[in-house]
Specification:
mainly alpha
């Protein structure tokens, strides 16, 4: 609670200055984002808390979309909703660009607490999908290395299994949404709880690839239309 209160006070000060005085932003972006580090880690690398995601290296368009969603209340998490409520869109874009440019190493992996069968099931869904149940492979949208594609598709590496599970659950039950067509809500709606557990556990075991940057926009086509990536890459 003390950490959250401190962050609230710091962001409130930033928001008030931006909203009331139209003053110039601090010249050093690293200083501006210090309020983010207690939850998201230095350079957005993540922390030991599984429910605060890694930000470093994700596409700027994706990060901006999430900041905007918290600002307008489409994504609901009271501390983030409050902290972003009075920040300008330009300021949010600068936050997104900064974290997108970072390339911190992945956090230390923890041994999986599921069986080999569960991990194998997760591997199959991530790499092949299940066409009989209208579940596309994760790599079809997030890329073969799962580092995402600019501007709006995030990488899936460096996230704890509990965080991934919580987000997939949010998509399944409609507590997390995106611009229509909401492709993740559609996909997650076909997943069972066992599928979610398997995908989350498998993704959390993956190591960082040699090239961890998101693929450039248009590098590959998406399997279907997605509001978060309006042009669909090279739409099929």
């Amino acid at each position: 609670m003390r950490t959250v209160l401190s962050l609230c006070l710091l962001f409130w000060g930033l928001a008030t200055a931006v909203a009331q005085q139209a003053q110039s932003y601090p010249p050093d972006m690293a200083e501006r984002v210090q309020a983010c580090t207690p939850c998201h880690g230095l350079q957005g690398r993540g922390t030991n808390d599984p429910y605060f995601p890694r930000l470093g290296g994700k596409p700027a368009g994706y990060l901006y979309n999430q900041l905007e969603a918290f600002k307008n209340g489409r994504r609901k998490y009271p501390p983030m909703n409050y902290l972003l409520a009075y920040l300008t869109d330009d300021y949010l874009r600068q936050f997104a660009e900064y974290f997108s440019d970072q390339r911190p190493e992945l956090p230390k992996q923890t041994p999986p607490d599921v069986s080999k069968e569960v991990l194998d099931h997760g591997h199959a869904l991530v790499t092949q999908g299940d066409l009989d149940r209208s579940i596309p492979a994760c790599v079809g949208c997030h890329g073969g290395s799962l580092t995402g594609q600019a501007p709006g598709i995030p990488g899936l590496l460096g996230l704890r299994s509990s965080y991934i599970s919580a987000q997939l659950g949010g998509w399944r039950y409609g507590t997390r949404t995106a611009t229509a067509p909401d492709c993740m809500q559609i996909v997650a709606g076909h997943l069972t709880e066992n599928d979610v557990r398997a995908v989350a556990a498998y993704l959390a075991t993956l190591a960082q690839p040699p090239g961890s940057a998101p693929s450039p926009a248009g590098s590959f086509a998406l399997p279907f239309a997605c509001g978060s990536q309006p042009d669909g890459g090279k739409q099929q």
